[in-house]
Amino acid sequence: MATFAHNPPATSAPAELDAATLRQAFGAYPTGVVAISALRGMEPVGFAANSFVSISLQPPMVAISVARTSATWPRLAAAPVLGLSVLSHGQGALCRRLASREGNRFDGVAWKATPEGAVLIEDAALWLTARVCATYDGGDHEIVLMELRTAELFSGVEPLVFHTSQFRELTPHA
Questions:
Q1: Between the CA of residue 132 and those of 36, 63, 84, what are the distances in Å?
Q2: CA angle at residue 56 from 54 to 60, to 5 degrees?
Q3: What percent of the chain has pLDDT over 70?
Q4: pLDDT by residue (tens digit) across 119-168?
Q5: How many whole angstroms separate alpha carbon 40 and alpha carbon 77?
């Protein structure tokens, strides 16, 4: 059996764990992007998040992490049902708009609402609907645990991948 030695490159002292360093470090991990949306009044309200994770199959649960500074989350937190749209590879501009703090995020966006008021983005790779079960302290973020109600997967639609502050496309490994 062969033994391999890991020889990391010589570096200076580790970087301080400030926000900029952590943002760069966490950017090394590729993620998908999810639009979290619902009707508030008769208007769609939502934002984009890349801190989305599956939690449980039984019961079906997912979680997102929301910045405490979000002005949008307080408007969505009490919605009876939220729409979670896993954005597709062609929706990078939409993702940036949903992440913006200015303008109408849904201007020109094709979407549909469920009877319960969840908003789902057209041409997404996956639609989920969920209800908030619990929230937990996550430092400068709030961790939101949600129980899934429905799922609709669109086969053949590639997800949007966010890595090192850029949108990427998946390619099959040979």
A1: 12, 9, 12
A2: 95
A3: 91
A4: 999 999 999 999 999 999 999 999 999 999 999 999 999 999 887 777 77
A5: 11
Report the alpha-carbon distance of residue 115 to residue 147 in Å, rounded: 18
The rounded distance, in Å, linking the Cα atoms of 48 and 30 is 15
Backbone angles phi, psi at 20, to 5 degrees: -65, -40
Closest C-alpha to 120, from 156, 149, 161? 149
Is the pLDDT at 102 greater than 60? The verdict is yes
Query: What is the SS3 assignment for 32?
Result: strand
How far apart, in whole angstroms, are the C-alpha atoms of residue 105 and residue 46?
8
Element (H, E) at 86: strand 82-86
